[in-house]
Amino acid sequence: MTYTxxxxxxxxxxxxxxxxxxxxNDSNAKVMIDVRQHDELKASGTVHGSIHVPxxxxxxxxxxxxDISFDTSVYxxxxxxxxxxxxxxxxxxxxxxKVFNLVGFQDILDQGAKKKSLI
Length: 119
What we know:
The protein is of the alpha/beta class. About 40% of the residues lie in helices and about 20% in strands. α1 crosses α5. The longest helix is centred in the first third of the chain and has 12 residues, at about 5-15. About 35% of the residues are buried.
């Protein structure tokens, strides 16, 4: 088993995979984060209302964002759910209490989210 596969197994044990309805129905302060690379967003767009923070820097950017506290519900997504699971796992390790994996971009659109183009 590769390091990434092992990390994904750990992440899936700790970070629940949820639906877009779960996000919409969460009454807590919340944020939806697209953890894909900028080129992916340029090519396909993103989900309306999400913010972009690439997986490689998410722990640092959120820790320096006064609007996102450790009690904020943080919903992450990527292309298919692997990077978002790992990003969520890392956020949990640095102290975020409510972290959820929305899985893949197309999955969220298929559940009724609106697409936002960057162009």
